[in-house]
Amino acid sequence: DKVLRELIEPYELRAAKLREFLEDIKPSLCYDIVPLVDPYGPSVTDPDLQCLVVSEETRRGGEAVNKKRLENGLPELSLYEIFLVKDPDHSQNEEEKISSSSLRQRLLGTLLRPPRQDPALPLRPYVIGLTGGTGSGKTSIAKLLGHLGAFHIDADALGHAVYAPGGPAYERVVAVFGAEIVNEDGTINRKVLGAKVFGNQDRLKSLTDIVWPEMARMVKEQIREADAQG
């Protein structure tokens, strides 16, 4: 459950950096770096261990280790607590301590590696799917991409278009859900339709089975139009 775990370096690289750091601090000591495949690692099974270094945040974990050691018939470890170094440059949305999560957060928007060419994908047009919850910034990002020359396809607008009178899904939606969903001007009353489907998975699936394939077809048509425009 690490934040931005896809930006965490491979174990082998992290272990090598740790060993380099430890040997730089005190090269006379022998260091045995092992991967932790469970929350405790060798700390609850190794009878030769005597001390466990913990931080302000992990002291309770150290106490849990000692509880487990007693259950396993091993003596408790001495817990040596170190204080966390504060990050004077942390932003409002970052942790106060020096944190790898904060460092990864700052990497957002950085090109980590050059784009790879996938032979299975056509060279153009390059299609980006932009999604997110309400207020997540989809409109702002779409405008920025538009300024860079992107052809913008608004799926919300297409969703309205399929319902419109004469639209590809109009007649089937009315046939399935009844004339009571139609306004006096012939348009579909989305609130009435919504009341019929939301909370009813079967009816909602009936609606999406009609609407989504038509939306997908319209999206593909617009992609072909964008390709034709270069």
UniProtKB/TrEMBL annotation:
Domain of life per record: Eukaryota
InterPro entries in alphabetical order: Depp_CoAkinase, P-loop_NTPase, Rossmann-like_a/b/a_fold
Gene Ontology BP, a term: coenzyme A biosynthetic process
Keyword Signal: no
UniProt keywords, alphabetically: ATP-binding, Nucleotide-binding
GO terms assigned for molecular function: ATP binding; dephospho-CoA kinase activity
Keyword ATP-binding: yes
Pfam families xrefs: CoaE (PF01121)
Protein name, per record: COASY synthase
Protein's gene: Coasy
